[in-house]
Amino acid sequence: MRFPVAISHRQARAKIYGRTQAYPYYRLTYSAEGKRLVRSFKTFGEAKEAAEKAVKSISEGNGAAATMRPKDVRELRFAREKLADLALALNLSKPDPSAPDASFNLLERHT
């Protein structure tokens, strides 16, 4: 197989570079959200699967998802779970009558 291998979907493009003696991993490169991203994979199949997902995500206009690493996804899921727990604990459906009203006029505040 000749490297680099180009993967594209609509206008989104990614390249997979082959292994070398100095770096024994397949490298996937693509641009999303104005950043050039490089990911490493042990097998060509993993790199190709990730490239196809990335270019589809970018072409659908969701470049932010393509920039997320697995660690970022885990952190996001953890934060969502904790925020959901917090919303249940606070019971947001019943506002506290003693809390100050958050809606105010900025002009009245500065005069």
Can you characterise this structure?
The protein is of the alpha+beta class and 111 residues long. Helix content is 42%, strand content 23%. It contains four helices and four strands, in the order ββββαααα. The protein has a four-stranded antiparallel sheet. The chain is elongated, with a radius of gyration of 23 Å.
Compile the SSE list and pairings:
Blueprint: E1 5-9, E2 12-17, E3 26-32, E4 35-41, H1 44-59, H2 63-67, H3 70-90, H4 106-110
Antiparallel strand pairs: 1-2, 2-3, 3-4
Summarize the structure.
The protein is an alpha+beta fold and 111 residues long. It is 42% helix and 23% strand. It has one domain.
Keywords:
111 residues; single chain; 4-stranded antiparallel beta sheet; elongated; alpha+beta
Q: How does the major sheet shape up?
A: 4 strands, antiparallel
> What's the structural domain tally?
1
Order of helices and strands: EEEEHHHH
Q: In percent, how much strand structure appears in the residues?
A: 15-25%
Quaternary state reads single chain
List the strand order in the largest sheet. Answer: 1-2-3-4
Gyration radius, to the nearest Å?
A: 23 Å
> What is the averaged pLDDT score?
83
Q: How many helices in DSSP terms?
A: 4
Helicity, as a percent range: 40-55%
Dominant shape:
elongated
Low-confidence stretches: none
Cα end-to-end separation:
72 Å
Helix/sheet category: alpha+beta
